[in-house]
Amino acid sequence: WTYTVGFTVLPHVGGLVGWIFSHKDMPVWYERLKKPSWCPSRKMFPVAWTVLYTGMGYASYLIWNDLGGCNSKAIIPLGLYGAQLALNWAWPPLFFGIHNLKMALIDILCLDGLVIGTMCSWYRINKTATLLMVPYLGWLAMATCLTIRIWKDN
Q: Which InterPro entries match (predicted)?
């Protein structure tokens, strides 16, 4: 159970740290941005990320477990996962913290590629883990489009 909980909680830790460092003037600054009509409510983001982080964290546990822990077989699948997680955690400070829309856009575009790469590397290992990443990829697609639109309009 320790590993299951640890892997499942890990993504939340970085998300929480990113929020702590970037939430100060988030509501005021974010509300002033020109956003498209299809932008989700600000209240929806914490709920969505809680579900997404839990799913991706558990999925990473499944991969780690199926590969027998940290070994040479796990380098690429878990390395890709770790890299995408780092870019995921970097986005809020870039966007909300230092208000660098261009860097946030570059970050999320790279993140999209790493998530797709992660899912491709996981598919032969554990299809359930791969499927647990599908909602995350869907949310990222929306978030990428939103980031592009906010960057263009502001």
A: TspO/MBR-related_sf, TspO_MBR
12: domain CATH number is 1.20.1260.100
pLDDT tens digit sequence for 49-63: 999 999 999 999 999
pTM, to two decimals? 0.91
The domain total for the chain is: 1
List pLDDT tens digits, range 96-137. 888 999 999 999 999 999 999 999 999 999 999 999 999 999
Percentages helix, strand, coil for the chain (3-state, rounded to 5) are 80, 0, 20
- Cα distance between residue 25 and residue 15, in whole Å: 17
User: Residue 77 and residue 59: Cα distance in Å, rounded?
Assistant: 11
Task: Note whether residue 35 is domain-resident.
Answer: no
Structure tokens at 115: 């998530």
Asked whether residue 19 carries a pLDDT value surpassing 90, the answer given is: no
The span from the CA of 52 to the CA of 40, in Å, is 16
